[in-house]
Design brief:
Oligomer: heterodimer
Radius of gyration of chain A: 17 Å
Number of helices of chain B: 3
Order of helices and strands of chain A: EHHHEHHEHHEHE
Number of helices of chain A: 8
CATH superfamily of chain A: 5'-nuclease
Largest sheet of chain B: 2 strands, antiparallel
Distance between the termini of chain A: 25 Å
Strand order of the largest sheet of chain B: 1-2
Radius of gyration of chain B: 29 Å
Shape of chain A: globular
Strand order of the largest sheet of chain A: 3-2-1-4-5
Strand content of chain A: 5-15%
CATH class of chain A: Alpha Beta
Largest sheet of chain A: 5 strands, parallel
Number of strands of chain A: 5
CATH architecture of chain A: 3-Layer(aba) Sandwich
Helix content of chain B: 40-55%
């Protein structure tokens, strides 16, 4: 049996990285761990790494602001640690960051946003996933974004991370409010 | 007038003393002048983060251009550990 290909957006990876989100979205964490074990073959794009880098820097600055007196800049140690996290994301086994074969132009993004009424960053994710679909055929876009899950289905198969786990953990903080729970 | 140079012993002493003074003066003016390149590299490593080169390679299975990855099994553990140390 061949291993299933999945395309991840930044949110799934951030759910695994950020300590505050790990208990909130346990399905994403379990999925990333399954990828590491080799049960799925995951794909993503390089701008997803940029998104992770930006989010981590923002989170760190936010933490510094609440814990220290008005310090807006990060230390060399903090910057180095964030950079190391992104490098390690790149080095997760069975996780590949690919370059789209066809350039994703502004016009393409605009047309996708207009057609599907989704955010620009989601349109970029969708178009990259579609590019991967041309080569890999069976690939599913994994996201937690409700709009992208529903409207993206017109273009590519979409799935919530809970699809890839047998049962949702009961102690997951979003268990009661999640419409995709199992 | 008393001159040190007239006595050979004192003359050697004054020369040695002058040499030491010159070395100290050089150090004060150029503190890193006598440091070797290796020591300078170590000093720089404390203040700068080494930048890893990111290269796209052709994936043999799919033919897609992918970022070079080490496929490190410990990567997930390290991510959690680092994120905990930083953001928890």
């Amino acid at each position: 049996m061949s291993i299933q290909n999945i395309f991840l957006d930044a949110e799934i990876l951030l759910d695994f990285i950020l300590p505050t989100r790990r208990n909130q979205y346990k399905c994403s964490c379990q999925l990333v761990e399954e990828i590491g074990k080799g049960n799925f073959k995951a794909w993503s794009a390089d701008y997803v790494l940029s998104e992770i880098l930006g989010k981590l820097k923002g989170e760190q600055e936010e933490k510094n602001r609440t814990q220290r007196i008005l310090r807006e800049t990060l230390t060399e140690y903090e910057k180095g640690a964030i950079q190391k996290i992104v490098w390690d994301v790149k080095n997760i086994p069975n996780f590949k960051i690919f370059e789209p074969t066809n350039p994703i132009t502004q016009q393409l993004i605009y047309e996708t946003v207009r057609k599907l009424c989704i955010q620009t960053k989601d349109a970029l994710v969708l178009l990259t996933a579609l590019d991967a679909k041309n080569k890999l055929k069976d690939i599913e876009l994994v996201t937690r974004d409700n709009k992208l899950l529903v409207r993206g289905k017109k273009e590519i198969a979409t799935a919530h991370p809970s699809k890839f786990i047998t049962n949702c953990p009961k102690d997951c903080q979003s268990y009661s409010s999640c419409r995709y729970r199992k | 007038m008393f001159r040190l140079e007239e006595f050979g012993f004192f003359s050697d002493m004054s020369q040695a003393l002058q040499q030491k003074i010159d070395i100290i003066e050089n150090l004060v003016e150029k503190p890193f002048a006598t440091l070797s390149s290796e020591v300078r590299q170590i000093l720089q490593s404390f203040s700068t983060v080494p930048v890893e080169k990111w290269e796209f390679i052709t994936d043999p299975e799919t033919g897609l251009k992918v970022l070079e990855s080490k496929g490190d099994t410990e990567a997930l553990k390290r991510i959690r550990k680092l994120a905990d140390a930083l953001l928890k």
